[in-house]
Amino acid sequence: MGKLLFLLAWITLLQVPCTIAAAAAGAACHCLPEPPEPQYGGGVVRNADFSAGLHGWSAFGYGSLAEGSSPAGNRYAVATNRTRPYQSVSQKVLLQNDTHYTLSAWLQVSDGVADVRVVVKAAGDFIHAGGVAAKSGCWSMLKGGLTTVSGGRAEIYFESNATADIWVDSVSLKPFTKEEWSNHRDASASTARRKTVRLQATDSAGNPLPGAAVSLENVRNGFPLGAAMSGEILRNPSYQRWFASRFTVTTFENEMKWYSTEPAPGREDYSVPDAMLEFARSHGIAVRGHNVFWDDPNQQPRWVQGLPYPQLLAAASRRIRSVVAKGTPGAHRVGRGERELHFSFFERRFGWDASTAFYAAARMLDTGSTLMFMNEYNTLEQPGDMAALPARYVQRLKQIIGGYPQNGAGMAIGLEGHFTAPVNIPYMRAALDTLAQAGVPVWLTEVDVGGGASQAYYLEEILREAYAHPAVQGVILWAAWRPQGCYVMCLTDNDFNNLPQGDVVDRLITEWSTAPRAGTTDAEGFFQAELAHGEYKVTVTHPSLNTSVSQSVKVEMGSGSHYFIQV
Fold first, then answer.
1. Peptide bond preceding 422 in cis form (omega within 30 of 0)
2. Is residue 302 exposed (0-12), middle (13-18) or buried (19+ Cβ within 10 Å)?
3. Is residue 74 within 8 Å of residue 35, measured between CB atoms?
4. Which of 33, 142, 171, 300 has most Cβ atoms within 10 angstroms of its Cβ?
5. Are the beta carbons of 24 and 407 closer than 8 angstroms?
6. 3 state SS of 440
7. What is the pLDDT, as a whole number, of residue 339?
8. Cβ(367)–Cβ(302) under 8 Å?
9. 362, 8 in Cβ contact below 8 A?
């Protein structure tokens, strides 16, 4: 605690209170005394709740299997005497062709805390479908999924590098056809992103105006969809026109990173990002910062890597102050900790609470509504990366908030989204469900898909999945244009003609917007329309009046659906 306060005082030059109140990041990652019933009744899993003992279940990997029961009479399987990671509980199932599967289970370990993941062995392949940090003394939910290419016999089992006994209960493997999955996604998107509104036209006395002509024009989409931009945009008018005609939010690819803005100690140069900020501001494009600190030791400025403690602290202080000062009207600047779960450069130098101090310092220096993101990769993309599990992400977020509760109001979840084909769409949805429990804004911050014939197809699937999830508040594509090529995924060629990925983006921008609408009010002066969330210009005219009135209307989740337009 003393080190945290010392860091805060040094960085902010402000007096920091020394009392820390309790905080929580929402109802994430419940650990329950008894597991609930299996989802979907277990789906294709037999004896999913172990009410018939161990019937249908086997020991995997020459391990030992026993039946356990709680004082309340709940029955479950126990993998005992484990000496190998894969020794656990298993069941053989029959998988269908080209099908999405949700997979869930409730797990406990006999001692301490252990990472446990579920694996589906199919056609000689071992598919990681999800994981959880299981605890002793209570049940934790593993939530994941997979997509099959070809059907056939398969086997579900659990594995852990820890040698503790693994307790398993309430297992579910539920198939969904691609059509069923898409229909559910469309219904969710309609609920999360659209609203039926009623506009009532009245005269100056408040009397309804039947027969009034009403027109609606979309001014700005409610769902932020953007792309990274490179410094090339400052000297390429074609790039400027292409970008500004599509996107409402951006992130600078490398231009705001520490190694770009301070290449030598004390020699700060923000001329390029300042010019990019001005371009964005002049075109009404919001800006997300990228990034304040990056915990990867290989991504620090070279002169930073070997600094002694006092000099590093001074450099970090200068960095955070200069970045926070870059906030400008019209620019949504976001402080970000990068790759907290995989790397620990600053924690190793300053102590485990270094990130808490950085977020708190940024919050105290910027008292506005700026969000502070903890940015991470593989949390959505790779169910086999145990370091980046959604539950581990939420745990780290709670640590940052718990160490300095004032962080809680401005924290947000940043998910990079660097996908490779084939993309595990069911796992992506399961991960978003888990992260949503934290109760803070969620953004996909660097979305791309590795090259190949299916690149555009999977990009569309990812974007549709994100758009349909009510916790996701924005998406940025990692597709900054450079003449020598993009990082992984380009949207256009060098003449700014769309590639298939660009066509996907344009099609979705159109689909997620509302085309201009026009009509007349009914006998009570009402005009009703279903609109995508966003800002609209509503114009009303009436034959008996020699005037028309235009009014701005904002349609969003949680706001009212009844608007009055006085003519």
1. yes
2. exposed
3. yes
4. 171
5. no
6. coil
7. 62
8. no
9. no
Angstrom CA distances, 12 to 300, 355, 364, 402, stand at: 21, 14, 7, 20
Q: What whole-number distance in Å separates Cα of residue 90 and Cα of residue 453?
A: 35
Count CA atoms closer than 13 A to 44's CA, side-chain side.
18
Using 50, 70 and 90 to split pLDDT, how confident is the model at 15? Answer: very low
Q: Are strands 75-80 and 166-176 parallel, antiparallel or unpaired?
A: antiparallel
Q: Which of 391, 393, 402 is nearest to 135 (CA)?
A: 391
Coil, strand, or helix at residue 7? Answer: helix
CA distance 21 to 404: 8
User: Are 373 and 445 in contact, with CB atoms under 8 Å apart?
Assistant: yes
d(CA 182, CA 304): 48
Of 525, 528, 443, 531, nearest to 201 (Cα)? 525
- Whether residue 146 contacts residue 127, with contact meaning beta carbons closer than 8 Å, is answered with yes
**Torsion sign over Cα 190, 422, 441, 328:** negative
Rounded Cα–Cα distance for residues 140 and 111 (Å): 14
Mean local confidence (pLDDT), 67-77: 96
Phi, psi of 247 (to 5 degrees): -105, 145
Element (H, E) at 434: helix 425-436
Structural domains of the chain in order of their starting residue, each with its CATH number: 39-181 (2.60.120.260), 224-416+426-434+478-483 (3.20.20.80), 533-566 (no CATH)
Burial class (CB in 10 A: 0-12, 13-18, 19+), 48: buried
Most confident of 13-22, 360-369, 470-479: 470-479
Q: What is the pLDDT of residues 450-485, one digit of tens each?
A: 989 999 999 999 999 999 999 999 999 999 999 999
Supply the pTM of this predicted model: 0.91
Cα distance between residue 235 and residue 327, in whole Å:
23
pLDDT confidence band for 406 (50 / 70 / 90): confident
Q: What are residue 108's DSSP bridge partners?
A: 167
Q: How far is CA 238 from CA 250, 482, 495, in A?
A: 17, 12, 8
d(CA 430, CA 426): 6
User: What do you get for the CA distance between the two ends of the chain, in Å?
Assistant: 61
List C-alpha distances in Å: 222 to 170, 195, 457: 39, 12, 24
pLDDT digits (tens, 9 = 90+) for 43-63: 999 999 999 999 999 999 998
> What DSSP character marks residue 269?
-
The amino acid at residue 335 is G
Q: Which two tokens stand for residue 329?
A: 């009207």
Whether a cis peptide bond, with omega within 30° of 0, leads into 407 is: no
Q: Give kind and range of the element (H or E) at residue 49.
A: none
∠ CA(216), CA(221), CA(227), 5° rounding? 150
Q: Model confidence at 326, in pLDDT bands (50, 70, 90)?
A: confident
